UniProtKB/TrEMBL annotation:
<dbReference type="GO" id="GO:0005840">
    <property type="term" value="C:ribosome"/>
</dbReference>
<dbReference type="GO" id="GO:0000150">
    <property type="term" value="F:DNA strand exchange activity"/>
</dbReference>
<keyword id="KW-0689">Ribosomal protein</keyword>
<dbReference type="Pfam" id="PF12829">
    <property type="entry name" value="Mhr1"/>
</dbReference>
<keyword id="KW-0496">Mitochondrion</keyword>
<dbReference type="GO" id="GO:0005739">
    <property type="term" value="C:mitochondrion"/>
</dbReference>
<protein>
    <recommendedName>
        <fullName>Large ribosomal subunit protein mL67</fullName>
    </recommendedName>
</protein>
<dbReference type="GO" id="GO:0003697">
    <property type="term" value="F:single-stranded DNA binding"/>
</dbReference>
<keyword id="KW-0687">Ribonucleoprotein</keyword>
<keyword id="KW-0805">Transcription regulation</keyword>
<dbReference type="InterPro" id="IPR024629">
    <property type="entry name" value="Ribosomal_mL67"/>
</dbReference>
<dbReference type="GO" id="GO:0003735">
    <property type="term" value="F:structural constituent of ribosome"/>
</dbReference>
<comment type="similarity">
    <text>Belongs to the mitochondrion-specific ribosomal protein mL67 family.</text>
</comment>
<dbReference type="GO" id="GO:1990904">
    <property type="term" value="C:ribonucleoprotein complex"/>
</dbReference>
<keyword id="KW-0804">Transcription</keyword>
């Protein structure tokens, strides 16, 4: 097949340029790119705190159900067999639920971020005393060795093994409850729980949230309700601020997946006659 001479191909260049310009002018205008994924209504107004029944690991979530993919990423790897491969429903249950007023989702998202950052800080930064066992972890052999060293005039402190340190790092339940009391008190840089007193007296429910390092004396705090599955857990914090109201779950956590009581047919009870 004979190829076209170079001059003939160069002659097609002007028509090709006109075609490209015509298509550029007649093509439909592109739609503007969306600014972002729209947040669902009420996003951030409720924070669910889930805990593991045995290891006391903690997961924060905006939903009342755990996501086996995204929520699993909150659990760090602290050693062999310290991070589960999946989230089992029989091990995880809600420990607490933090509720914010309607329209204060931005405050809830700020608290969510701070709680996760503090939890991560506990998991990656610990003092030297963390290497030693707590008195509740002593075995009979440890107690015997402590007594023997005490007779010799020495002090012996049992050291945690690698597996023990991993299990101790997983148990963040007590630390998380203490962090909740501090964050909900309006402390910390950029905490949005502090509301200026002048803004709280404005019209309607429009509250101007002030980002301050600490809750000033003239500022108010957003009212928060914390519901517990066990009200004894709140005792792990030294003190709670006055803006926090405590309550219990209306139904136990282990009954959340069962059929509501209204749908259960009542079985008539028969009277039992006792013979004399």
């Amino acid at each position: 097949m004979n190829a076209a001479p170079p001059g003939a191909r160069l002659g097609l260049l002007p028509s090709l340029l006109r075609t490209c310009v015509r298509q550029a002018h007649t093509a439909p205008a592109r739609r503007p790119a969306p600014k972002g994924y729209p947040k669902p209504e009420g996003h951030g107004e409720n924070i669910w705190v889930f805990t593991h029944r045995r290891t006391e690991q903690v997961i924060f979530s905006f939903k009342d159900r755990l996501d086996g993919f995204h929520d699993l990423k909150q659990l760090p790897f602290n050693g062999k067999q310290t991070k589960p491969s999946k989230l089992r429903k029989d091990y995880w249950s809600p420990m607490a639920k933090i509720q914010f007023p309607a329209g204060m989702g931005s405050v809830g998202r700020s608290v969510f971020q701070k709680l996760r950052e503090l939890k991560h800080l506990h998991e990656v930064s610990w003092p030297d005393e963390f290497r030693y066992k707590a008195p509740s972890e002593y075995t009979q052999e440890d107690e015997r060795k402590i007594a023997d060293e005490k007779e010799k005039g020495k002090v012996y402190q049992p050291i945690r093994t690698k597996a023990d340190r991993g299990n101790a790092l997983n148990a963040q339940k007590k630390n998380v409850i203490a962090d909740m009391a501090v964050v909900l008190a309006g402390k910390g840089a950029g905490n949005k729980l502090a509301v200026a007193e002048s803004a709280s007296k404005g019209a309607g429910n429009k509250l101007a949230v002030a980002e301050s390092k600490e809750a000033a004396s003239g500022d108010e705090l957003v009212a928060v309700t914390v519901k517990w599955s066990n009200d004894q857990d709140m005792g792990f914090a030294e003190a709670w601020s006055s803006n926090v109201t405590h309550a219990l779950f209306e139904e136990p956590a282990y009954m959340s997946n069962l059929v509501p009581k209204q749908q259960v047919a009542e079985v008539p009870t028969e009277e039992v006659k006792v013979e004399a």
